[in-house]
Amino acid sequence: MKKKIFGISLAIMAVVLLLYAILSTQLFYNSSIEQTQTYLKVYASFYEADKYTFDNAGACAYSADLGGARVTFMAENGVVTGDSDDNDLVGIDHSSRSEVVEAGESGSGFATRSSDTLGKDMIYYCVKTENGFVRVALYTSSALTVLSDSIPTIIWFLLVDILICVIFTYFATEYIISPVRQIAKDAALNRKLKTNYKELEPIVDILNKRNVEISAQLKEISEERDLVEKAQKSKNEFIANITHEMNTPLTSIKGYVDLLAGGLLNEEQSKAAYETIRKQSDRLTNLVACVINYNEIDNDELPPYEVNASKLLDEILLTMKPVVEEKGITLTSDIEENLLLQSRYERLNQVFGNIIRNAIRYNKENGSIAVTLKREGDKAFFAVADTGIGIDESHLERIFDRFYTVDKSHNGKNGGFGLGLAVVKKICKRSGWTIKVKSEVGVGTTFTVTF
Ligand code: ADP
Asked: CB count, 10 Å around CB of 136?
């Protein structure tokens, strides 16, 4: 950039200098001619007819009086009668010389030309007198000579010009670059860029836009990375949980099989061992079915259709009647007839079933359960309120997590793997429903699903 500015300013100044030199030469030349013409007029006015003879001698005398200016006398017909610088000119016809022609016509005339006789540039002034033509002339430099004479001065000026250009370039570059430098500094520090220079505004705008875009992209990338990390963590946890859940029944089965194979058990003990093996295998099968079911919800892209939720809920309650009675639980229901929901039968079945099963499972002896399915305003809701053991506030957030059970010692005893509410939550999320839970330890729990 410095080189460019230096080159341009030097070129501009050099051209200006050259133009100035040519112009001033021209002006100087013109003014010097004007001045010479004035001198010549004054010189001519000194001519006295009776003082100088009209021949070479007279011309020389007159020239000497004028301090060396060339003097030529010509007869009325233009033939030279005397010349101060060239005595041999006598007898030569000068009538065609422009100054002589002009003087013949108007009394006086000027001419500037290279003298044929002397081979130099001269300015002539010719006046008509009673004796004939009197011509005075002075040497003059041609415009080219003036210009060539001024070349050393021009070179000096050019050197000064280069020096000025170097200094100018340094300060100009600093001046131009400093706002750009400031922008680069701010950009490096990720600050919002500002400028007072209109010319830099487009760059600043583009950089600011880019900065915003980059920040957004970085945020997106970091969010995506977080999601991937989360997914990976969750997958690992899921696998760890499944293997843990499988481990208990498998250990038990293996232990009993070893005992049976060793023939160490009597008939009664063998019977009990077979029974345990059967229960644990059921539990394993159940676990695998639960996991498969949980994973299937994710991939389930089947279209929803109208389901008679009221009918479905009635059926579920009917199937659960024996267990409810067995536990001495009082079950009441408030179900609006023919309430239709956009869903799938198996999904709604799981939401209703899992929540009601928990209300029975975590209830107390002779407790009660109230099931509601109603429309309220433009929304329908399903609620199950029990008078069971309740859930401590510290667990409320996590009960919807996979494999999360509040009381680990109960784990498996009631057949729960901590997947029931995770399934409910997943279905609600995919269907755009909301699920809420309210609970008090020892008093009871209420789950509400709003469709
Ligand atoms: P589980 O198969 O163990 O029942 P869930 O996902 O259905 O798993 O429930 C998670 C945990 O939430 C249960 O282990 C239980 O501790 C608690 N829970 C769920 N429903 C109720 C309820 N109605 N009353 C008390 N605790 C409940």
From this structure: 27
Q: What is the pLDDT of residues 163-197, one digit of tens each?
A: 887 888 888 888 888 888 888 888 888 788 888 88
3-class secondary-structure state, position 79 = strand
Burial class of residue 423 in the structure, from the number of CB atoms within 10 Å of its CB (0-12 exposed, 13-18 middle, 19+ buried) = buried
**Chain mean position to CA 61:** 91
Verify whether ligand 1 is closer than 6 Å to residue 400 (CB atom): no
**Ligand 1 within 6 A of 82 CB?**
no
C-alpha distances (whole Å) from 237 to each of 220, 373, 402 are 25, 35, 9
Closest atom of ligand 1 to 404 CA is: 10
Answer yes or no: is the C-beta of 359 below 6 A from any ligand 1 atom.
yes
> Quick one: which of 356, 354, 342 has its CA closest to 308?
342
- pLDDT tens, position by position, 200-246: 899 999 989 998 999 999 999 999 999 999 889 988 988 888 898 88
Nearest to 127, CA basis, from 219, 245, 37? 37
For ligand 1, atom 4, name the residue with the nearest CA: 416
Does the beta carbon of 399 lie inside 6 Å of ligand 1? yes
Angle of CA points 321, 326, 328, to nearest 5°: 95
The H-or-E segment that residue 327 falls in is none
pTM value is 0.56
- Look-up of token digits 């009660």: 368
Decide: 52 and 64 in contact? Cβ < 8 Å.
Answer: no
Query: Ligand 1 centroid to 253 CA: how many Å?
Result: 27
